[in-house]
Design a protein that fits this description.
FAD/NAD(P)-binding domain, binds flavin-adenine dinucleotide, Elongation Factor Tu (Ef-tu), domain 3, 35% helix, 4 domains, Arc Repressor Mutant, subunit A, single chain, alpha+beta, eight-stranded mixed sheet, 652 residues
């Protein structure tokens, strides 16, 4: 550890790890300070990465040069592509991961990243001085730690997760903590609030961990993963083998290459069962001691991950709720009971579980619990995730009011890049001073725009429905959207860029073949009849017939073997051809919105003096100070009439 860095990252969770790697990748001398180095990227809740919309975020992180996808591929013990019954815009990869190996793999990523050092300690204070920037009151210059160390840096990224003044609840028992068996982080919130930054409280919870040896699996339904070639990282085996590695050292190979072991050799099943009437009765009998219902917890939890007691109260007519028992790893008996998040007294949790036949003889490692923690209102941030109040202070992850590993990691990567840019690293000209992803470029762009423009009144998690350009934000093409951009600022390596170029060439080659190749009716009709599609009369171009819903590239390749490509290439090409019309329409709409994005309004108006605006618009525009008209249009409470009024004043 040294005393001066370009960037300090506080917290080694999912946001902090990506922030530290992206900052270091841009050449910034970076120090990651975290409470416990053995809990790097700990999955506080379920041992799974990805899922609906979250899987797309992981692919985006990977396309940008982040590490979450690589770590997931290397530690996956089950993989599924969710939402396959819907269009490809909705397909979302999800993997169960080996929890202990996930931590070890992340440590390995950090340890093999140049420019990055780790210091195990707890930050208690940020050190600031007056800012000479007229827009900000103060400027951050360093941190103080619990051990009395002062470390200085040009930028600081705060990613302290659920640890700030964390308070754990199990029944009526309350213990300060950042996560179970980990200390809470005190004084740091107060230090940040003293700068004029506002904080508030949120809540989340997690279920019991169960000893697999005490479960009767014969009374549960087995749920296997898919034995598919999909990976989270775009640079899996292709790079490990490839001539693209300019640095062929073992460290580089190990850092980037996903395992060569076939996926199925590691795959473990999940198991499903459900709660029942007796189990509900036991839980309801303990409701008076539930911190969620006896007034002990006042803060708001994630609406879409409710505790089991909340489900019973909200859906009182339901006689059962599904439960998923998920493995925590290949070398442990520990299992995670998804769907049974609870902060009821531990004896109530265990007694209720014993009413479920498969859990009659259950032994648990630890009960479920809830945690309350501090977060900071994200509308106090710019789109770079820098504080509007304190220069050089960036925020990412749960501290911005989000929930979820993927949401945290996506923000961490963006904050890390911007912290490095702000400290004078990476990027060679003015426009590279801010790294901002647009809403039509990435779910991460949607996430950050929602946070800073709309704020949060409950833990924010990503859904596909939050994105207006879903068909442009698919999991198959995050590399096309983001790798060239990331490469231009030195975030994605040339190796990664070359992998993308190779893929792009293959997609173009296959598209041309499909547009050129023709099949006669007698060649294609047997296939069309087999899949229930109307036979053709004359000859057809493969690209045209592929637009039919039932026709697949895989099917056509059985008739024309020259169009048989690696599945990743076929899938991407098929989507581009089949959904060409939708993609074009959404792109045109996005271009129109870009025009509003180009109309800069910050500093143009004294909103309070504009009578044609509604009172709500005047207040909100004054408070948020949007940079562009498009940003203004996304602030809740700003109506199309308000936007028109501003357009008129701008003479448009
Ligand atoms: C009990 C519980 C239940 C959860 N349930 C869900 C759920 O159901 N669904 C869901 O999507 N998400 C859930 N989460 C949230 C999920 O774990 C987080 O969204 C995610 O981990 C956030 O990542 P992060 O990097 O922001 O913070 P974290 O993963 O919390 O990491 C924070 C890191 O900062 C370090 N740190 C904290 N303070 C300091 C300091 N002062 N100095 C140095 N280091 C510090 C910590 O040691 C830790 O390494 C749950 C979390 C908890 C604790």
């Amino acid at each position: 550890m040294e005393l001066f860095y370009d960037v300090i990252v506080i917290g080694g969770g999912h946001a902090g790890c990506e922030a530290a790697c992206s900052s270091a990748q841009l050449g910034a001398k970076t120090c990651l300070i975290t409470i416990d180095m053995n809990k790097i990227a700990q999955m506080s809740c379920n041992p799974a990465i990805g899922g609906i919309a979250k899987g797309q975020i992981v692919r985006e992180i990977d396309a940008l040069g982040g590490r979450m996808g690589i770590v997931t591929d290397r530690t996956a013990i089950q993989f599924r592509m969710l939402n396959r019954s819907k269009g490809p815009a909705m397909w979302s990869p999800r993997a169960q991961c080996d929890r202990p190996r996930f931590i070890t793999e992340w440590r390995h990523q950090l340890d093999t990243t140049p420019n990055l050092e780790i210091w195990q300690d707890q930050v208690t204070e940020v050190i600031t001085e007056a800012s000479d920037n007229p827009e900000r009151k103060s400027r951050v210059i360093g941190v103080k730690t619990l051990w009395g160390v002062e470390i200085y840096a040009k930028s600081i990224v705060l990613t302290a997760g659920t640890f700030l003044n964390g308070l754990l609840h199990i029944g009526r028992k309350m213990i300060p903590g950042g996560r179970i068996a980990e200390p809470a982080s005190h004084h740091l919130t107060e230090s940040i609030c003293s700068l004029g930054i506002c904080s508030a409280r949120m809540k989340t919870g997690t279920p019991v961990r169960i000893d697999a040896r005490s479960v009767d699996f014969s009374l549960m339904e087995r749920q296997d993963g898919e034995n598919v070639s999909h990976m989270f990282s775009y640079i899996h085996e292709s790079l490990a083998d490839s001539q693209y590695l300019s640095d062929s050292s073992l460290a580089t190979r190990e850092c980037y290459a996903a395992p060569r072991v076939p996926r199925d050799s590691n795959f473990l099943p999940c198991w499903t069962t459900s709660t029942n009437k007796r189990c509900h009765e036991v839980l309801l009998s303990g409701l008076k001691d539930s911190p969620l219902y006896n007034g002990q917890i006042q803060s708001i939890g994630p609406r879409y991950c409710p505790s089991v007691e909340t489900k019973l109260v909200t859906f009182s007519d339901k006689e059962s709720h599904p439960l998923f028992l998920e493995p925590e790893g290949t070398d442990t008996n520990e299992m995670y009971l998804n769907g049974f998040s609870s902060s009821m007294p531990m004896e109530v949790q265990i007694a209720a579980l014993k009413e479920i036949p498969a859990f009659r003889n259950i032994r648990v490692y630890r009960p479920g619990y809830a945690i309350e923690y501090d977060f900071f209102d994200p509308t106090q941030l710019t789109h770079t995730l820098e504080s509007k109040i304190c220069e050089g202070l960036f925020f990412a992850g749960q501290v911005n009011g989000t929930t979820g590993y993927e949401e945290a990691a996506g923000q961490g990567l963006v904050a890390g890049v911007n912290a490095a840019l702000s400290a004078g690293n990476g990027g060679s000209n003015e426009e590279k001073k801010a790294f901002i992803l647009k809403r039509d470029e990435a779910y991460i762009g949607v996430l950050i725009d929602d946070l800073v423009m709309k704020g949060v009144d409950e833990p924010y998690r990503m859904f596909t429905s939050r994105a207006e350009y879903r068909i442009l934000l698919r999991q198959d093409d995050a590399d096309r959207r983001l790798t060239p951009l990331a490469h231009s600022i030195g975030l994605a390596t040339t190796e990664r860029m070359n992998v993308w170029k190779k893929k792009e060439n293959a997609i173009n080659e296959l598209t041309e073949k499909l547009q050129r190749s023709v099949l006669k009716a007698k060649e294609i009709n047997p296939y069309l009849e087999r899949i229930g599609s109307t036979p053709v009369n004359g000859s057809v171009h493969l690209a045209d017939i592929l637009t039919r819903p039932q026709v697949t590239l895989e099917g056509l390749a059985e008739i024309s073997p020259e169009i048989k490509y690696e599945s990743e290439i076929s899938e991407a090409t098929e989507i581009l051809i089949k959904y060409n019309g939708y993609i074009r329409r959404e792109r045109e709409y996005a271009e129109k919105m870009h025009r509003l994005e180009e109309i800069k309004i910050r500093g143009h108006f004294d909103y309070n003096s504009i009578q044609s605006l509604s009172t709500e618009a005047r207040q909100k525009l004054t408070a948020r100070q949007p940079q562009t008209l498009a940003q203004a249009s996304r602030i809740p409470g700003i109506s199309p009439a308000d936007i028109n009024a501003l357009l008129v004043l701008l003479g448009r």
